[in-house]
Structure to design on (900 residues):
């Protein structure tokens, strides 16, 4: 038997990692639903012409072929979706007549890209998206709302500090045009590479691709340095002396979004938010607000949660559907956090109590205890065999189960401390922290032994 | 713009159906975890040679091809899994050294089959599997445990009455050999078709394919008629006067399983269980206990939840991994129940309260109310626009939101009854039944207008 190897780009969690993932997804879902977002799950496939719309040439699509079909009809014409936006746009158009707008949906699903796997990029990955979509119009306050909801999620998760960086496409593009760019989209793409290739190389691109002179390129780089936790960025941008109507519109929108966020975050437990003029989202089709998220200590992952405002998610000729949303890379976040041990679970099974079996003939006594405990919501297993108690305790210990129950003596033992107390299955309850697996952020110990 | 049509075989729920699906999956998960089953999610793909192992020629596999790869390397050699057993077997072998046995896992995921779609069969579907897997040995009481866990799930779900039918392969095969079958597997496959093709045709198959004479075939049909809610089936089988050691072993096992189930089900809320000698699971690789499930009023769907005991889930040369498990067809159950309106949700959004906005300038007052309500776990939205109150109420009503809050008058209105009361966002709470969407079984009204 040859050893079975993992498949590169298709991450899979062992049980502890899966418990962490469940905890994160449960929290994300709870907060999305608290804000009135309804769950949507679409099929995993879309017709290829839908997937390749808008010239999505940078995404490598997996096409489905039926193995046993004849050569002629083997290709199904279907591909696995590479994000959750394309299927959502299709869903909105397909069901527009039955939907109420503004539509608030969240979608937590896998997506697939046949690209070369690299750090933070997988061929199969889980995303959590929220979007608010209007019919023909959608108010700007929803841009602040998305920022607030996602920062509430960050604050509730057992992860390192996440900071949401917000910018506005109009602001950036207006500025670039104002300093002489002939191709503002090229300028956006260049600025988007700042973290990867550095200022000098970006300046070259701004000159070569965006039609700027050296001075204009410098001012774009100056703009990119502006980052403030409040609306004071506006003065800093105006101090650069660039005049352009689109820039004014973008500044106005971003000030409103940042001020609304600041007002509502007062006194709430939330992640950090900054206005950051270097956020560009180079290749995506945003038209106003844009979001990116940096995770402290994991900056090399790039943005773990990105999105923005788009004038048109979709259009059916009669109506257009503008929206604002954000996409949280669950796999991109968790695969490295779990692998590095920065996020850990208190145990790798749901089980809180293992009921020992004294003798196979007495198994029903143990089952009765288990039934009573489960009836009060306590996750319980009965020992698989009437082995010696020491062996039964080791079976619990190896799986992280904190308590072993002995029906003969009506007592329960905390196998971590060794404390054993008399107990009645109709009334005993574990401490809250032991009731279900706890997921925690481990200290960031650089000195830790590998 | 052409109308977008659904894809045959790829079911998708609208928001009410999705809320029902979430409720079902949440319940399934809660009960599995209460019994100490840990969640596992595997990648969606397996190497083709794994998927085609064991000559699974009846499953049509979807192979992944990378759209933009060169002709030579376009086929990835990967296929989408068609069940959750093949990936679980691979997972057990891959990680056997890190796993503790008996291993208890549940897995709720999608699977794909490129077959022609038909009632109850989809190209993409969601399954919920539980299995208990041992290393080299696994006690019989786990066969009763699987039956108990799944019948607890049925009892907790808002679905029509589900009855778990249990049989034993050894019993059936021993009996068939005892009455002269030369190919007992062919006899199993024939009996498996009883509901579809009827007694006469099955009798023909038993003679033609299983090597039985007419009298032997008759006795197989007599066996198939035996079905009892308790262990009394054993006397009925023995009364047929067939002697065979494998039959005795199977009878003994099934009596034990049925008696253990009956003992533990006493006084518990559980679905119905019967011993049923016609259950065969024709094409699958079970070696002892087998399970099928019939849903009252939806018998034409076939079994919505099937499984059994297998001597070897997998083998790595040094160890074999026997197991027992069951697979619950979530899509197979829910797509028809939702489409027929037999299961309904009280609303199609999580939102319990819509906070009205009196004036855009006062939006922050509405936001403050929403924040207070959410802080106490009440799902709340703020109205998208400061429209006339009537319009805001209709926006809530169309989405099934039961309450509208008016910040100006500090009052909340139940828009179903029209009752409006003064309320403080720091203390007000909805009745329990309104806190989140309720999922219910609707009466089966044959007379209902279509």
């Amino acid at each position: 038997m040859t050893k079975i190897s993992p498949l590169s780009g298709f991450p899979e969690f062992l049980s502890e990692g899966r418990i962490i993932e469940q905890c994160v997804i449960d929290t994300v879902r709870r907060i999305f639903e608290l804000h009135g977002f309804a769950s949507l799950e679409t099929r995993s496939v879309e017709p290829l012409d839908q997937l390749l719309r808008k010239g999505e040439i940078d995404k490598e699509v997996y096409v489905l072929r039926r193995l046993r079909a004849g050569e002629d009809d083997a290709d199904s014409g279907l591909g696995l979706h590479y994000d959750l936006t394309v299927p959502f746009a299709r869903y909105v158009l397909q069901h527009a007549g039955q939907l109420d707008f503004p539509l608030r949906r969240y979608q937590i699903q896998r997506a697939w890209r046949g690209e070369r796997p690299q750090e933070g990029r997988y061929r199969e990955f889980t995303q959590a998206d929220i979007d608010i979509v209007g019919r023909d119009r959608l108010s700007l306050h929803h841009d602040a709302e998305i920022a607030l909801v996602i920062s509430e999620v960050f604050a509730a998760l057992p992860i390192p500090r996440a900071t949401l960086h917000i910018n506005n496409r109009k602001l950036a593009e207006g500025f670039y045009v104002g300093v002489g760019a002939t191709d503002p989209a090229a300028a956006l793409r260049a600025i988007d590479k700042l973290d990867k290739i550095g200022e000098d190389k970006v300046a070259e691109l701004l000159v070569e691709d965006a039609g700027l002179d050296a001075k204009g390129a410098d001012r774009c780089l100056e703009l990119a340095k502006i980052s403030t936790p409040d609306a004071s960025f506006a003065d800093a941008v105006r101090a650069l002396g660039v005049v352009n109507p689109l820039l004014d519109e973008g500044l106005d929108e971003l000030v409103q979004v940042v001020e609304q966020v600041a007002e509502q975050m007062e006194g709430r437990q939330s992640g950090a938010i900054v206005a950051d003029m270097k956020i560009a989202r180079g290749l995506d089709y945003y038209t106003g607000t844009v979001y990116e998220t940096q995770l402290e200590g994991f900056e090399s992952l790039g943005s773990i949660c990105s999105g923005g405002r788009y004038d048109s998610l979709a259009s059916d000729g009669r109506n257009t559907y503008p929206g604002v949303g954000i996409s949280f890379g669950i796999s991109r976040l968790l695969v490295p956090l779990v692998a590095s041990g920065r996020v850990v679970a208190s145990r790798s099974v749901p089980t809180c109590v293992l009921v020992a079996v004294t003798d196979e003939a007495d198994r029903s006594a143990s089952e009765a205890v288990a039934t009573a405990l489960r009836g009060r919501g306590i996750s319980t297993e009965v020992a698989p065999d009437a082995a010696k108690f020491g062996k039964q305790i080791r079976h619990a210990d190896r799986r992280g189960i904190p308590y072993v129950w002995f029906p003969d003596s009506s007592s329960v033992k905390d196998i971590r401390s060794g404390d054993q107390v008399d107990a009645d299955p109709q009334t005993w309850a574990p401490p809250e922290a032991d009731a279900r697996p706890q997921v925690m952020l481990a200290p960031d110990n650089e000195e830790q032994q590998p």
Q: What stands out?
A: The mean pLDDT of chain A is 92.
